From TrEMBL:
Gene3D superfamilies: Leucine-rich Repeat Variant. It comes from Triparma verrucosa. Residues 1-39 are annotated as: Disordered. The lineage of its organism: Eukaryota, Sar, Stramenopiles, Ochrophyta, Bolidophyceae. This is Uncharacterized protein. It comes from the Eukaryota. InterPro entries: ARM-like (IPR011989), ARM-type_fold (IPR016024).
Length: 512
């Protein structure tokens, strides 16, 4: 994953009253084509040329590398790094030693080369290369407002690699530099170099804020205050687009909300919940959703601050994540993590109106998550059980509503009720065995006791919950009855764990 930076024409300004050199520009003011057509066979020479003392030679080399790695030559990007890994350091040397077109082209080249996943790993696994590129890009952000956006995009591309996030965030100057950029540029004219710097620095923060270590560093800055100011833009949420400054700011606050233990005071001081409330209630697609998720996760939010539509909106998101699909015109598959969505839904169900979540569909989704973690735990050790734990919290909150009969004539338990109670109880007992946290164990026991007490009467909504869950298990190839665990069951990534993000070549999955 990566962001492709658009090439923009740049001009080395001529002294006042004097014309620039004739013949060095095309009609549209872009650099004139180099008389020599370079090929991949010239990489070694181009790498050396990037360090040439002559600015025009450095520019020529940077332009050639950009053209060899542009969108029409994507296949070259990985080959370039594998063939000449030191070219990253040479490009960094070029952009620091140059200005104007040469610097611009070196940044565009670094952007192209930082997009492929293999390149991210090669760059970040090379201690010397990663130190060079991070330091060089931070220097550009700090000293060159016109080019800061390209440097932010290059760092953002690298930060899509999970292991790169804490390394990038650890740069001693980066976050302070971004803080200054945000504070100075938040009111800059849209489309200007400074406003683009703000936009893509927020994009970089969106990725960095996934890391707890980065969140801790952010807590020592005024970045949260600057993000809140970005969301007070006069244009209004209805006019915000995906990948806009406001969109990135919302996503950054959403990520930071999951590290609220280190940021809670800052969130309170900057009135984050109050800022997000009107956005969440605007019901404007993905921006409303991000604001709603953040409010749901934050411990200090209250029932009155949670939007009325939050329950159904986040339940739909959880279902889409499990099905590995997006929502048309709002978000793509993989944009939101399961852990984020379920944590928010738990907050909505426990602090807001539980009845807005209490549907058989929501109950079945929580059972699906819990059962998938139980199955996964029988194949390997799972270190993070928070999605399952939060799913249990949601189910416990909505269980009283699912147990309501909603009919005037009270009926005795039917076989369907007894089967639903038995299977759900079996699942919750299996979850209880997984949890090491005493609070989770007690909550699981409360659910088990409630199900037992409810088993004497007919429970239509519980039956429907179990039916939806069973239908999903059937689609995933799991037997109709949730097994006791006496006999193991094979699990593969095409079955009940298909929604889990697999990050390893051997197909094993990590729980996000």
């Amino acid at each position: 994953m990566g962001i492709t930076a658009k090439k923009t024409a740049k001009t080395d300004a001529a002294p006042a009253g004097k014309a620039g050199k004739a013949g060095t520009r095309t009609a549209d003011n872009s650099p004139a084509p180099d008389p020599k057509a370079y090929s991949m066979a010239d990489l070694q020479g181009l790498k050396d040329l990037l360090s040439n003392k002559e600015p025009k030679e450095r520019k020529r080399a940077a332009k050639a590398i950009y053209e060899l790695s542009d969108v029409s030559h994507k296949k070259n990007r990985t080959i370039i790094i594998k063939t000449e890994p030191e070219i990253i350091e040479s490009l960094c040397e070029c952009l620091l030693a140059s200005s104007g077109d040469a610097r611009h082209l070196a940044l565009l080249s670094l952007n192209n080369l930082s997009i492929p996943s293999d390149n991210k790993k090669l760059i970040m696994n090379n201690e010397h290369s990663r130190a060079n590129i991070i330091d060089a890009l931070v220097t550009i952000i700090k000293t060159d407002p016109a080019e800061s956006y390209l440097a932010c995009i290059a760092l953002m591309n690298l930060s899509f690699l999970e292991s790169a996030v804490p390394i990038i965030a650890a740069n001693p100057d980066l976050l302070d530099t971004i803080q200054v950029l945000l504070k100075d540029g938040v009111k800059a004219k849209a489309g200007s170099g400074k406003s683009e710097g703000v936009r893509w620095s927020c994009g970089l923060l969106k990725n960095l804020s996934r890391s707890e270590s980065a969140a801790t560093r952010i807590a020592s800055t005024e970045i949260v205050s600057a993000l809140v100011q970005c969301l007070k833009a006069p244009s209004g949420a209805a006019r915000w687009s995906n990948n806009s400054t406001e969109d990135f700011a919302l996503f950054t606050l959403l990520n930071l909300s999951q590290h609220q233990d280190v940021l809670n005071d800052l969130f309170r001081k900057n009135k984050v919940i109050q800022t997000l409330q009107p956005i969440a209630r605007s019901v404007v697609g993905v921006h409303s959703l991000k604001a709603t998720l953040t409010i749901g996760i934050l411990k200090e939010s209250t029932s009155s601050e949670i939007p009325p539509a939050a329950g159904s909106e986040v339940t739909e998101l959880v279902g889409n994540i499990l099905a590995k699909k997006g929502k048309e015109k709002e978000y793509s598959a993989g944009v939101f993590k399961l852990s984020t969505a379920v944590q928010a839904l738990k907050g909505i169900a426990t602090k807001g109106d539980a009845s807005s979540v209490a549907t058989p569909r929501a109950g079945a989704l929580m059972l699906q998550i819990m059962s998938s973690y139980v199955l996964a735990s029988r194949e390997s050790t799972i270190t993070d059980l928070s999605p399952s734990d939060n799913a249990l919290g949601v189910f416990a909150a909505i269980l009283p509503s699912l147990l309501e009969q909603r009919v005037s004539n009270v009926k005795e338990a039917t076989p369907g009720t007894l089967k639903a109670v038995a299977e759900i109880t079996s699942l919750v007992q299996a979850c209880q065995d997984l949890y090491s946290d005493s609070a989770s164990k007690f909550l699981a026991q409360d659910v088990i006791d409630s199900l037992k007490e409810a088993s004497s009467l007919d429970r239509p909504m519980l039956i429907e919950t179990k039916r939806i869950w069973s239908a999903q298990r059937e689609r995933d190839g799991i037997s109709d009855s949730f097994f006791s665990g006496e006999v193991g069951q094979e699990v593969d990534t095409d079955g009940p764990l298909s929604f889990l993000p697999c990050q390893f070549d051997n197909g094993s999955c990590t729980i996000m």
